Amino acid sequence: MQASDEFSEGQLNPANAPIPGVDKPTGGLIANLPPASFSFVMATGIVSTGLELYGAALPSLVLFIIAVLAGIVLAAATLMRLIGTFGLVMRDIRSPGRAFGFFTIVAAANVLGARFEMYGWITMALAMAILGAVVWVVLNYTLPTELLVAERKTPMIAEINGSWFLWVVGTQSVAVAAAMVARLGGSALLGAAAVGLWGVGVMLYLLVATLVTIRLLTHPVDPASLSPTYWIYMGATAISVLAGSRILLLDATMPIMETATPVVAGISFILWALGLWWIPLLILFGIWRHVLRHRPLRYEISLWSIVFPLGMYATASMLFGGVEGLDFMVGLGRIIIWVALLAWLASSLAMAHAAFSWLRRRRDLRGARPGPSSP
């Protein structure tokens, strides 16, 4: 297992963007923080949720604590990056291959909010829902506008990748949060908003899937470009099913539910089937990338784009299957959640190995520097 270049000094450029009050190496890491860094929180939080639904309370709690702590650290780092290196943030916003990674902030907030609600911590759940909604509104209109008006030398389609599905994931996570708050407060307006957001998310999935597929068909595909982010093809369907499940749990007397229930239930099941169809193909993509084309196995932030879809698919299967009385879906979800946990453990070990390798190289570089000369 090789260490990722993301932990390599060659990728850090703190001289161009110093963080006031922070040492140079740490400042470099913050300055180059990937937009999709909150994917770790998303993945950890949703696996925790799935384990809770399974009944594995202790591992679920451990992962929940890890997700919360990681969220706090990443939130602080993101704020420091936004304040200290605003130019780099804008560069990411104008990059088609990186911009939609910022939607991991929205999804992470709403995944944590759902976990807080499961523990009965309603105030924290509401705070996360508000945070997710505010960030979603900002990103939902800022990113597409910046990408469309930015000057570029090549067509944008060449830079589109699987991370664009995070637009769908972020939107559906807001639908989940709206349904959660509507259920807690009995708000018919929020119930209607949840249904509307779910519909927008489904339409965005069709739009993004079309764009990503056109890119794959019209531009050369190599092992570097066929990254794990394409697993969000499946993850976006899974969170749409989860959002549909949350909507189906709303009070049936809400005005929107008479119209929405059969539509949401039917489309959610179709999306669940589509997600299941994607899994073997995505596995084949990985075999082609690493076995046939010999792409080295190493840590990359996009590994969490495998963990999150697996955890989300398992969670959505258990919840939707339980709501609709489809035992085979519940059974499949109870199997896949353990696959998701194994993927989480493997990705965490790879991340730790990459981090320790980077620290070791830094120590060796410091040791190799000559000390001050004697008088």
Automatic annotation (TrEMBL):
Q: Which InterPro entries match?
A: SLAC1/Mae1/Ssu1/TehA, Sulfite_efflux_TDT, Voltage-dep_anion_channel_sf
Record Pfam families: SLAC1
Q: Which domain of life is it from?
A: Bacteria
Q: Where are the transmembrane segments?
A: 61-83, 95-113, 119-143, 164-182, 188-218, 230-249, 269-289, 301-323, 335-359
Q: How does it sit in the membrane?
A: Multi-pass membrane protein
The subcellular localization recorded is: Cell membrane
| First-listed, main subcellular location of the protein, grouped into a coarse class | membrane
Could you tell me the keywords of this UniProt record?
Answer: Cell membrane, Membrane, Transmembrane, Transmembrane helix, Transport
Q: What is one cellular component GO term in this UniProt entry?
A: plasma membrane
One function term, GO molecular function aspect: sulfite transmembrane transporter activity
Give the family this protein belongs to, as stated in its UniProt record: Belongs to the tellurite-resistance/dicarboxylate transporter (TDT) family.
Q: What is this protein called?
A: Putative membrane protein
